[in-house]
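A.,

Following up on our hallway conversation. Structure tokens first:
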């Protein structure tokens, strides 16, 4: 508001009270039960996300800008076209617009600075971005804003590029996979896409429909029918997204982690140890239905001995360095120690650590970018 004071001290107190009461529903019982550990760890983890690359998710500063521009197409471009303030709306409506813009910029700038970048970190931008798109469409429909030629060209060009990719990718995967593989330099990703998945011409239909949607957009744009122009574009885009979620999502999942999930599911119900070497994953807990360690399990005895050595009561009290040290001790014992259960290891083909050199490990399978080993009791 350019330093115009539009709330008072009472408003601030109401806000802080509401935020405090709602968050305390969780924080107070948690602190009473477990002490301040969770709150302190939460703050420490946020500092870690902000200051360093966590779990290999480092991307350039402009990462989230591209994610929003392409991932929220075409609303992202329409929102830019209608970003300017106008007096067509009431003070309260424009005040809500200001709030949405504050939300957008705070989220985008904050997570652009944060070194750990994952797609969904900027997902809170989707709400204000969509609002600004609606604000822009309404302003254009009432001739308050002009939908300038460079915004039109941006939608058309980006729309045809995306539709071309949605057509080309499944067809190349079906009929000329070697071309896709030649574009991938990373061995793990290359083996991901070497996995046999049934792509076909039907998977290119969403791209064909998207090309049709953009063509219809151009036609109505030429005719000057703004409501039909935007309505058709957005409804057509919703249809394309729905079709992509059916034809693309499951098959991409099969490429990227299908082999690992199949492996974990094969271990469901087995009384064994499962160890991820070189990378972290929650997948074994869900797909293999991994159970908590029993009191007399030798791996549990190793853990308890380490906690006692560090004067800690549980894993939760360990520092990051201590957790890493314990992880190394677990791996060494599972590879060389006197185990009481079969041990299954899984790693990425481009980061096997020292598993291949272990003579007592047997390579079970190498598929989809993952290598699976077993050590029998």
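Then the amino acids I'd put at each of the 377 positions:
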């Amino acid at each position: 508001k350019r330093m115009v004071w539009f709330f008072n001290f009472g408003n601030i107190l109401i806000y802080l009270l509401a935020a405090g009461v709602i968050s305390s529903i969780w924080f107070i019982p948690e602190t009473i039960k477990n002490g301040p550990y969770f709150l302190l760890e939460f703050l420490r983890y946020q500092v870690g996300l902000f200051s360093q690359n966590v779990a290999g998710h480092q991307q350039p500063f402009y990462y989230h800008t591209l994610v929003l521009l392409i991932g929220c197409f075409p609303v992202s471009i329409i929102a830019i076209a209608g970003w300017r303030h106008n007096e067509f709306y009431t003070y309260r409506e424009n005040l809500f617009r200001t709030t949405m813009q504050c939300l957008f910029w705070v989220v985008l700038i904050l997570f652009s600075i944060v070194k750990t970048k994952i797609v969904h970190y900027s997902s809170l931008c989707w709400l204000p971005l969509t609002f600004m798109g609606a604000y822009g469409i309404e302003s254009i429909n009432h001739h308050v804003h002009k939908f300038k030629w460079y915004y039109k060209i941006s939608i058309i060009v980006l729309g045809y590029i995306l539709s071309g990719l949605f057509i080309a990718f499944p067809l190349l995967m079906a009929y000329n996979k070697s071309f896709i593989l030649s574009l991938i330099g990373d061995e793990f990703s290359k083996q991901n896409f070497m996995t046999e998945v049934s792509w076909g011409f039907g998977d290119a239909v969403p791209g064909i429909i998207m090309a049709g949607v953009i063509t219809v957009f151009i036609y109505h744009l030429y005719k000057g029918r703004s409501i039909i122009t935007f309505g058709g574009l957005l409804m057509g885009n919703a249809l394309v997204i729905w079709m992509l979620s059916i034809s693309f999502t499951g098959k991409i999942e099969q490429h990227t982690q299908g082999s690992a999930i199949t492996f974990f599911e094969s271990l469901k119900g087995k009384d064994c140890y499962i160890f991820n070497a070189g990378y972290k994953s929650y997948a074994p807990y869900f797909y293999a239905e991994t159970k908590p360690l029993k009191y007399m399990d030798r791996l549990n005895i190793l853990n308890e001995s380490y906690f006692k050595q560090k004067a800690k009561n549980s894993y939760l009290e360990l520092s990051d360095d201590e957790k890493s040290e314990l992880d190394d001790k677990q791996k060494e014992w599972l590879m060389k120690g006197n185990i009481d259960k079969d041990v299954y290891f899984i790693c990425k083909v481009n980061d096997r650590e020292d598993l291949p050199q272990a003579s007592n490990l047997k390579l079970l399978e190498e598929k989809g970018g993952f290598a699976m080993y077993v050590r029998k009791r």
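The longest helix spans residues 149-175. Curious whether your intuition agrees with the design.

B.
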